[in-house]
Amino acid sequence: MKVSKATVQSRLAGLKEANPMMGLRGCRLGIVHPGITEMQAKAIAEAAVKVAGEGISVHPHIMIPLVGSFEELEQQVKLVKSVVQDVIGKRGKSFDYKVGTMIEVPRGALQAGKLAEVAEFFSFGTNDLTQMTFGISRDDAQAKFLSYYVKHGVLEKDPFETLDQEGVGELVRLAVERGRATRPKIELGICGEHGGDPQSIEFFEKVGLKYVSCSPMRVMIARLAAAQAALKLKKSSPVPGA
Which residues are in the PEP-utilising enzyme C-terminal domain (predicted)? Predict the structure, then answer.
């Protein structure tokens, strides 16, 4: 590539961040370097066209991460749709797809009504949403003080294992309400470790989320918890005419 080692090292040094978790990542990276978003959207579209051509039904959901403002999401959604439509036009094969966002930044949750103008689905990234709402790093906190907090009653439970319903959960509830007010049929779900926690799943059922995503080892627990939560909610709902 005719790029010197010194040039590469200088570039790497320039990318170093003091706080990468809140730095240039997610949609921010795609906005500053649109070629990354274009490359990923094209790869998804090309793959979808290929399998659609083989007679396989495919419905990609393309998710824009770490969104905190409408402008961020709108820019990325437009770019993704432009790339996908270009692939469809060139390949002559269409497929259904949706573009949505990950709700993992508190401001994004508060702006859910506006985001729903362009997002066709929300997936709540409760790991990062918990980190940013509490203002703590999961890796550092679990190693340094969360167990102490739980043991001494500062926190009832580890908020990264069981969702904090009063804080993080309230943001989820608000986002669901505001998102549905704008787009009544918006798809809503959650991804993260909370998707495998029975108590958290019961909360997600109550606020109206329709799916959970979790690590493979928690899938069976999540299925059972989701079924139990649905039955519990059904039993507690008033019977018409009763």
Answer: 15-229
Distance CA 175, CA 173 (A): 5
Closest CA to 112 of 205, 182, 168, 163: 182
The alpha carbon of residue 221 and the mean position of all alpha carbons in its chain are separated, in whole angstroms, by 21
**Per-residue pLDDT, 242:** 46
In this predicted structure, what is the pLDDT of residue 6?
86
In sequence order, the β-bridge partners of residue 73 are: none
The separation between CA 79 and the C-alpha centre of its own chain, rounded to angstroms, equals: 19
Per-residue CA distances from 75 to 15, 179, 225 (Å): 23, 19, 38
Alpha-carbon span 160 to 136, nearest angstrom? 11
Reduce the secondary structure of 57-74 to three states and give it as a string: CCCCEEEECCCCCHHHHH
107 touches 68 (CB < 8 A): yes
Q: pLDDT tens for residues 42-79? A: 999 999 999 998 999 999 999 999 999 999 999 999 99
Mean pLDDT, the chain, as a whole number?
92
SS3 content of the chain, % helix, strand, coil (to 5): 60, 10, 30
Kind and range of the H or E run holding 242: none
* Closest to 69 measured CA to CA, from 22, 101, 30: 101
What separation in angstroms does the CA of 48 have from each of 15, 57, 199, 210? 33, 9, 36, 24
**What per-residue confidence (pLDDT) applies to 1?**
65
Side-chain half-sphere CA neighbours of 181 within 13 A: 11
> Which phi and psi (to 5°) does residue 102 adopt?
-90, 125
Structural domains present in the chain: 23-45+58-235 (3.20.20.60)
